Amino acid sequence: MARLNSGHSVPRIGFGTWNANANAEQSLSDETLVEEAIRAGARSLDTAMIYGNEIDVGRAIKTVVDEGIVRRDDLFVSTKLWSTYHTHEGVVTGCRESLRRLGVERVDLYFVHAPWAFKAGAPTSPLDVTPEWIRKWDPDEFRHVWTGMERLVDLGLARSIGVSNFSVKKLNDVLARGVRIPPAVNQVESHPYLQQNEMLEYCRRNGIVMSAFSPLGSPSRGPSNRRPDDPVLLDDPLLAQIAEVRRCTVAQVALAWAMHRGVVPVTKSSSRRHVEEDIRAFDVALTSEDVSRLSELDCNFRYLRMESFRAVGETTADLWDE
To answer: What does the DSSP assignment read for 182-213?
Structure first.
């Protein structure tokens, strides 16, 4: 478990549900996939309003709890506030709606899904959002969003609160303006090709846990985030070499590397077997030489560029403050 600044703890590896069944070995509902993941040992579940599967995740939780496989308190449940709710009151509204869909009284961690905010009346679906709907980052406006997040803790709707897709600059903008309850987690894309060393060091200095989505290079990402010349992380020869020596899978090497750094990876698996394999990444002992060699793979390569969330006049570099 990784200790959070809120006093609670999060399992060292999470089960993600974005695009959950894209690579499923058979046609399974998100509800069934989450059930299978819990039966296989997953205890941290990561979803979001915009994923459109909170109801499925909630049904899976109810099933395994009713069957006595786990207690509700054995599970660490996270979900996220979408960009159409970026106001003080909108935060509470968005959270309550997610709780209703999940069928739970509170979540263990509630994220601001992204720093970009949408103007009033913007379409809910990201596919329908154009740059004209997107507001440029304004840390003073975001202060109202964060006080809404703090209120969720006061109301008992969320045990811990965090952010996602925040750069070092934007996270520093938040902390520099003073917060009553600091973010417990920043969840960002991270893997051997995008190691986020500056972010990791910043989080360590400020008592924030860094969580990694797409720790395996997002092999199931959709066509809008895919280019023909994108490198395939799981085909990397160095990862394969280390996996052969350590007698494990390439995915286990990538996950073990993240946990070795103190990062909490959130991975998605399409079968119980893959969930069990991912959990066994705990047993993979990388050497300091392994870690040193893997550090050389960093090339600041993003699989999820989020280019559709640029405001008018912004570049992708502006989006990530690079």
So the answer is: --SEEEEE-BTTB--HHHHHHHHHTT-EEEEE
The answer to whether 101 touches 54, Cβ cutoff 8 Å, is yes
Q: How many residues does the chain have?
A: 322
Is the pTM value of this prediction over 0.90? Answer: yes
Q: Which of 214, 205, 304 is nearest to 265 (CA)?
A: 214
In the residue annotation, 85 being an active-site residue is answered as: no
- pLDDT tens profile 226-253: 889 999 999 999 999 999 999 999 999 9
For residue 125, give every residue at least 6 positions away whose Cβ sits within 8 Å of its Cβ, in sequence order, or none.
none
Work out the number of other CB atoms within 10 angstroms of the CB of residue 124: 14
Closest Cα to residue 212, out of 46, 86, 52, 82?
46
Between CA 192 and CA 296 the distance in angstroms is 8
**207-232 confidence digits (pLDDT tens):** 999 999 999 999 888 887 888 999 99
Q: What is the DSSP letter of 298?
A: -
Dig out the tokens for 20 from the structure.
Answer: 């959950």
Residue 179 to residue 6: CA distance in whole angstroms? 13
Pairing of strands 2-3, 9-10: antiparallel
CB atoms inside a 10 Å sphere around CB 43: 19
Q: How far apart (Å, rounded) are the C-alpha atoms in residues 18 and 318?
A: 25
Closest by CA position to 103, among listed 52, 60, 49, 152? 60
Which residue is catalytic, options 51, 85, 193, 202? 51
Q: How far apart are CA 104 and CA 83, in angstroms?
A: 22
